[in-house]
Specification:
The protein is α+β, with helices and mostly antiparallel strands. The strands form 10 sheets. Strands 30, 31, 32, 33, 34, 35 and 36 form a 7-stranded mixed beta sheet that branches. It has a 6-stranded mixed beta sheet with strand order 6-5-7-8-10-9. It has a 5-stranded mixed beta sheet with strand order 16-22-21-17-18, sandwiched between helices.
């Protein structure tokens, strides 16, 4: 439905396949300067002059109008420019207007298309129905000849639309689709003053949304499918629309097709995480973010620019040479004076492009005038369409292909999964009752698309408005708990069923244990059919099968588990080399780490060279006996086989392990080389505090991990997941007392069989000679082992959530949860019994029964009535400190040990959410990336940076304070800060992007200023001053000087008002790089890192919780204060703060110099 008076219903389309077949005439929608909508058309040849039929990012050939449909339009004759007007379309009665191709057949789909500028929604719907044998009716604009014209949507009422739908579909069986792309003029980032929902066009969006909400309340139908697209500037607007339409917002960009970038926000009722679980999902999804908003990517075959027929035009350089998409097309300005450049283009447009832009009267966005994105015309080609009309059509048409993808996913999401069997509507057994509670939507796994921060004020330009809204903006620590989609599902059921859960859990577990007994014969037959090495993996000490696969499969099918391939892998074994199966609900990777695997033949060649070289210089590990005993024990348990004779091509011959009777004889080994690695010792500290040795295999150095191809990454539940779960329960029941419990999976991946044992040979050197073994189960050190086990761990957690409604969390093989005290024990006991019954046992020695305080992942979590407190355990801190002390004593740190140590330290420090460790970890990560032998790097001795970095880390470990997260919102301070400097008689802000080069001018000679405005407990203070020249001298480079000014302005008030400020502080900064450096604790300049590390030590010692937010320069109320203009501050009655500013600068410089002298940075 359009906003200016016309609506229509369409039942047919001239094209058979969107994006490939084209009509000879294409309609073109244009908008004249008055805002009234008119229709123009041109022949395909005239519009595109022979454009290719290949699909582009619009889903259409380049140069062809996206609607590609014959309609009653204004036609331009191919012989002359005379205009042939169509017959006037009049509003007829609905009965006269509706024409159904298949007689009186009721429609399968009803489409209400609002603001339908190009008719894209109708086009896509018609193509879908044509290809799937469906019938549809719709209300839209008059692009299609068989439509009901409805007119201005603001004249509609819920009653009138309800009557229309009932007349179109009296039986109420059709799927209703509501599509719309409300006017975007008031949201466009091209405009410097875009008013958003407050503008005359933008406000229509809210009225449209409310009309839809009221309409859905009228009918007794399933909820409609909603597809709404627009480009709002701020996240507050997005969240507002989300709440009204009850449809989450995601970004999709036509750049997925490879030709052009056209990012748009879509609101659609697509349960993204749910459809990602389905094996029949038509498109593969990948998630990133765009300006903090979840962005969905679809796996598509990219457009081939060389296949485009351009009628003599040369494609832009960015497409054919650089492989980059064109920047987003903009429609030409309707204002004869042109349009201003968007703020985002400031400082990014070349002078040549800027000159072309001005010469063309600023009709388009300035980035379109860059030489690299313009087509080259050597033939003087022109279109018979007026230039303004042609550019309007092309710019608006590129979203059609993206819209088609969203439509496909929306229709797929509306098709429910067929249940494996119909459940008893009256409940039946305990398992049936539990399955019914999920209402056909089994619990989801994975983190989901992610959330975006709705409290975003970065779009505001008015300082008064920003100041007012910042008073209402909560600190991130005080925002509502955020949980993954599966836990959100659980919470809804838990909140209404909690009084019955203890009894239901007991009944479910009893039934599962009985089911295992009932299927004992089937389990025996399955076990006897397994390969010998798989049987060994599942054989218990008593000689019976541990895994109850028939019962496991039965329960998974009952509750809707989607990863059916996992049952085949449990039967045959898990792959260790080559491509890995994707996890259920895992996020797809956005990097290339596992995208280019080593070919298996090349791997065998490299692996053989590595093994032969290693054997020639093989040394016996001092801990060989402990590893030999561990291997002998694994052989006895069936997890390993051997010892084997070695291949004849090896330079050394294998020997038996005579220290154990069952390994004293050689078994016949491989005649030729097989994938082989070497065992080495890993030194750890056990849960009892005593040192222990674990055996690992060098699958990374032996190139085995290089063969892995993985498209996704396993998610983990860290300590923050426990915190969010506890907060979510407290939001529902503020009076609840909550306990935490923990379990450790016994044997973990060592109870899962390998697919091919011939890929798992391992050498252990002993004083008597080398010994050769092979695994029957997954092995330590293999990427594939971690990926495969995490899928099993996900299944275990899913079973606990689905069957017994326990909000199970896991970090690899560490499981746990949090529950209210009256249910915590039943949750703990039922989880143990359920997993054990199905063959997944937990270690009794490491059980952590429900309690208010637990140690999870080496961190202590304590729950009180009003807060959650997280702090590092003394045992783990001491172990890490001893490890660092050993590195200093040995004066040696090879890259693989540096990588392991850096990972442990980063994990531990990030759990405590501090930043004082950030820069100190950088030397460890640098060492971990080095390659070559120890001889090339002085036997990996420590350098000065490593020594001082380790010293700072030891300090951080000793002084890391506990972190407390209150359930009730606490007061927080709000701080604005800004700085400037004067160069060439002009004031510049650090956030300015076009700061000129000042050559050899010493920065300490430049005039500068800083200022801040801070509100504490309702009272506002301000201060301003100048950074002393002797302080500036410590930051001499251009980058350091600019960063320093912005960072000093932000941290100075924290030092000056440490006694007055609340512990939670919301800080606004108008420089993006400075905000990133402040948040992360380090940047790219060493002197700035020294300053940041000193600041973060101060923040952590004083328990400050800073949160930096972006503010535009024009909305920064401290801008005038920094320049000494205090008129507004005094008029508002703010209090000027007096401090010994030079003394504070001296304190900052002294602390910064302390870090500089350490050399760690």
């Amino acid at each position: 439905m359009g906003c200016s008076g016309k609506v229509a219903v369409d039942n047919r389309m001239t094209t058979g396949n969107i994006g490939r077949d084209t009509a000879e005439d294409a309609s073109v929608m244009t908008i004249d300067s008055s805002g009234a909508r008119t229709i123009g058309a041109t022949s395909r040849r005239a519009a595109s002059n022979g454009s290719s039929r290949n699909r582009d990012s619009t889903g259409h050939p380049p140069g062809v109008d996206p609607t590609q449909c014959k309609a009653e339009t204004t036609r331009r004759s191919s012989d002359n420019n005379d205009t042939v007007r169509p017959q006037q379309v009049t509003l007829r009665s609905k009965a006269e207007t509706i024409r159904i191709k298949n007689g009186d057949r009721n429609p399968d789909i009803i489409m209400l298309s609002f603001f339908d500028g190009l008719g894209t929604a109708c086009l896509i719907c018609d193509e879908h129905c044509t290809s799937n044998g469906l019938q549809w009716k719709g209300a839209s604009w008059d692009h299609f000849p068989d439509v009901i014209h409805r007119g201005d949507f603001e004249q509609e009422t819920p009653e009138s639309l309800h009557d229309l739908i009932q007349e179109l579909d009296p039986g109420g069986q059709a799927t209703v689709i509501i599509a719309g792309g409300p006017p975007c003029h008031d949201f466009s980032r091209i405009r410097a003053d875009a008013p958003g929902h407050q503008g005359p066009e933008g406000s229509k969006f809210i009225r449209f949304a409310q009309l839809i909400v009221d309409l859905e309340k009228k009918w007794h139908r399933p909820r409609s499918i909603i597809m709404v697209e627009i480009i709002p500037q701020n996240r507050a607007d997005m969240r507002k629309i989300e709440k009204v339409l009850d449809a989450p917002a995601v970004v999709h960009d036509a750049a997925d097709f490879g030709t052009i970038s056209r990012p748009r926000v879509w609101w659609c009722r697509i349960p993204w995480q749910e459809i990602a679980h389905r094996a029949d999902c038509p498109l593969r999804l990948r998630w990133t973010t765009m300006q903090g908003i979840p962005r969905v990517h679809f796996d598509l075959v990219k457009d081939d620019p060389h296949a485009f027929k351009t009628a003599g035009l040369s494609l832009p350089r960015c497409l054919v040479e650089e492989g980059k998409p064109l920047p987003c097309l903009t429609t030409p300005s309707d204002d004869p004076q042109g349009r201003p450049a968007p703020r985002s283009s400031k400082g990014k447009i070349s002078s040549e492009a800027n000159q072309r832009w001005r010469s063309d009267r600023q009709r388009f966005a300035p980035w379109h005038y860059e030489a690299g994105v313009m087509m080259s015309d050597s033939q003087g080609w022109t279109s018979k369409l007026s230039e303004h009309e042609r550019h309007k059509a092309l710019a608006n048409g590129w979203h059609a292909g993206a819209a088609r993808l969203i439509f496909i996913m929306a229709m797929f999401a509306a098709t429910p999964v067929v249940a494996a069997r119909e459940l008893n509507p009256l409940g039946g057994t305990a398992l049936d009752i539990a399955a019914n509670l999920w209402q056909g939507r089994p619990p989801l796994l994975g983190p989901g698309p992610g959330e975006y921060d709705a409290f975003d004020l970065s779009y505001l330009q008015d300082p008064s408005e920003h100041w007012r809204l910042s008073r209402q903006m909560p600190h991130p620590d005080h925002r509502d708990a955020h949980m993954e989609p599966g836990l959100q599902q659980w919470l809804r059921i838990w909140s209404r069923m909690r009084s019955h859960l203890a009894d239901l859990r007991l009944a479910v577990v009893d039934q599962v244990e009985q089911l295992v007994l009932d299927l004992e014969d089937e389990t025996t037959r399955w076990y006897q059919s397994l390969s010998p090495h798989v049987q060994k993996a599942y054989r218990s000490k008593h000689g019976v099968c541990t895994l109850q696969l028939p019962a496991l499969r039965h329960i998974c099918e009952l509750f809707g588990w989607q990863d059916r391939a996992i049952f085949d892998e449990l039967t045959t074994g898990f792959r260790l080399l080559g491509p890995l199966a994707p996890g259920l609900g895992w996020k797809r990777r956005n990097d290339e780490r596992y995208a280019n695997p080593l070919d298996l033949q090349e791997f065998l060649h490299k692996n053989k060279q590595y093994v032969v070289d290693k054997l020639r210089r093989c040394r016996v590990d001092p801990c060989w006996r402990q590893m030999a005993d561990e291997i002998a024990a694994d052989v006895e348990l069936g997890r390993m086989e051997g010892p084997f004779s070695s291949p004849t091509c090896w330079p050394k011959t294998a020997v038996p392990l005579t220290s154990h009777s069952h390994t004293s004889q050689l078994l016949r080994g491989p005649d030729e080389h097989k994938p082989t690695c070497f065992a080495f010792a890993v030194h750890q500290v056990g849960s009892d505090g005593r040192p222990k040795v674990r055996r690992a295999e060098d699958w990374r150095r032996s190139f085995a991990n290089a063969t892995v191809a993985a498209e996704d990454s396993p998610p983990y539940h860290d300590v923050a997941s426990y915190e969010q779960l506890i907060r979510a329960i407290k939001e529902i029941d503020p009076q609840a007392e909550i306990f935490i419990w923990g379990l450790d999976h016994e044997a973990a991946y060592r109870q899962l069989p390998a697919l091919d044992p011939s890929h798992t040979y391992v050498v252990l050197a002993t004083p008597e000679g080398l010994t050769l073994w092979r695994h029957t189960v997954l092995m330590f050190g293999s990427v594939a082992s971690v990926w495969s086990y995490c899928r099993i761990a996900d299944l275990m957690g899913w079973l606990c959530r689905a069957c017994i409604f326990t909000p199970a969390l896991h970090f690899v093989d560490d499981f746990g949860s949090a529950e209210v005290t009256e249910l915590a024990r039943s949750s703990f006991d039922a989880s143990r019994r359920l997993c054990k019954a199905l063959g997944f046992s937990f270690k009794q020695s490491k059980e952590q029964p429900p309690a208010s305080q637990q140690v999870i992942q080496g961190v202590s979590i304590s729950v009180s009535a009003d807060s959650v407190t997280v702090q590092g355990t003394e045992e783990r801190r001491q172990r890490l400190d001893e490890t660092l002390a050993d590195v200093l004593t040995q004066d040696r740190l090879p890259p693989h040990e540096a990588a392991s140590l850096a990972g442990k330290l980063q994990f531990y420090c990030q759990l405590l959410r501090g930043r004082s460790h950030a820069a100190a970890l950088r030397p460890l990560f640098r060492r971990s990336r080095l390659t070559g032998s120890g001889r090339q790097h002085q036997d990996w001795r420590l350098d000065g940076q490593l020594r001082h970095g380790i010293g700072l880390l030891r300090w951080s470990l000793r002084h890391a304070p506990p972190r407390t997260f209150p359930f009730q919102k606490e007061a927080h301070s709000v701080l604005y800060a800004d700085a400037f400097f004067n160069l060439f008689d002009k004031d510049w802000k650090p956030s300015d992007e076009d700061i000129p080069n000042w050559g050899r001018t010493p920065p300490e000679t430049l005039k500068n200023g800083w200022g801040f405005v801070v509100t504490v407990q309702g009272r506002t203070y301000f201060a301003h001053g100048r950074v002393p020249y002797w302080f500036v001298r410590a930051f001499t480079s251009r980058r350091a000087y600019i960063y320093m000014l912005e960072i000093v302005a932000q941290i100075l008030p924290l030092f000056a008002m440490q006694e007055q400020l609340d512990r939670h502080v919301l800080l606004f900064v108008d420089n993006g790089p400075a905000r990133h450096a402040l948040t992360c604790g380090f940047g790219k300049d060493e002197s700035i890192n020294c300053l940041l590390q000193h600041a973060w030590r101060f923040l952590e010692e004083n328990s400050f919780r800073p949160a930096w937010q972006r503010v535009t320069s024009s909305a920064n109320v401290s801008d005038s204060v920094s320049r000494g203009d205090l008129r507004h501050a005094r008029a508002e009655g703010w209090t000027e703060l007096q401090r010994d500013w030079d003394g504070l600068f001296e304190e900052l410089l002294t602390g910064s110099e302390r870090f500089r002298a350490s050399g760690v940075l």
